[in-house]
Specification:
This protein is mainly beta. The chain has helices at about 85-95, 95-100, 170-180; strands at about 1-5, 10-15, 20, 25-30, 35-40, 45, 55-60, 65-75, 105-120, 125-135, 140-150, 155-165, 205-210, 215.
Length: about 220
């Protein structure tokens, strides 16, 4: 099940002898994948639309009907490649062709911009801006969106934040703030060969030859 962490990311406001803590942001965590994100306390968590949805966040009610949706599923097709190839995998699998296919679930979809080699969480990502018409989860309207797709540890994460097209410039900043807050549970080490202890600091091992006429040191 999904869970909200009780941690509050705001300083307590002290007034006289009493103290009060106001939650400016909540931190949400998916207990299955370990993905986390933060969002303003004025937003609400809504029911998932599809089976692969991790979370849907709705902004305060208004005509813009702004919301962000995170989707995720396994993708082990590139598991054989070391993490250093993740940037190249993103350009091949999660770029223009991916977004063309993704946007087919919407009506009158149009891709306005695309940028490879960006980032979301700990993975390489593609960033796109698009427009489409949809009635889910709100009344049908023309919407404008920011989209990210990132593959990390054999799992793809897709962020789709959108609002009414006329309110897009107002909501683009908050959408990108949510995208920036996303983090994945660490699976790959920064060093190409992993992180090993310094074996040079170990004590020496001296082995005698089979007839005692020489030694081997490790």
């Amino acid at each position: 099940m999904r869970s909200l962490l009780t941690a509050v990311m705001a300083l307590a406001l002290l007034t006289g002898s009493a103290s009060m803590a106001k939650a400016d942001y909540f931190v949400w965590e998916d207990t299955k994948t370990g993905m986390t994100l933060s969002y303003p306390d004025t937003w609400q968590v809504e029911n998932a639309q599809d089976p692969d949805d991790l979370v849907t966040l709705a902004a305060p009610s208004g005509r813009a009907n702004a919301y962000c949706r995170i989707r995720s599923h396994e993708d082990k097709r590139y598991a054989i490649f070391p993490p250093r190839f993740n940037k190249d995998v993103q350009k091949v699998e999660y770029s223009l062709g991916f977004w063309d296919q993704y946007l087919r679930e919407y009506k009158q979809a149009e891709l306005y911009g695309l940028q490879d080699s960006t980032g979301m969480g700990r993975g390489w990502a593609s960033f796109a801006e698009a427009g489409y018409v949809t009635g889910v989860p709100y009344p049908e309207m023309e919407r404008r969106s920011v989209l990210f797709a990132s593959l990390y540890n054999n799992r793809v994460y897709i962020l789709d934040c959108s609002c009414h097209k006329d309110a897009f410039e107002k909501w683009k900043g908050p959408f990108l703030s949510i995208a920036k807050s996303i983090d994945f549970k660490k699976a790959n080490h920064e060093l190409v060969s992993g992180h090993y202890r310094n074996f040079l600091n170990d004590g020496r091992i001296i082995l005698m030859g089979p007839e005692g006429n020489y030694t081997t040191t490790y």
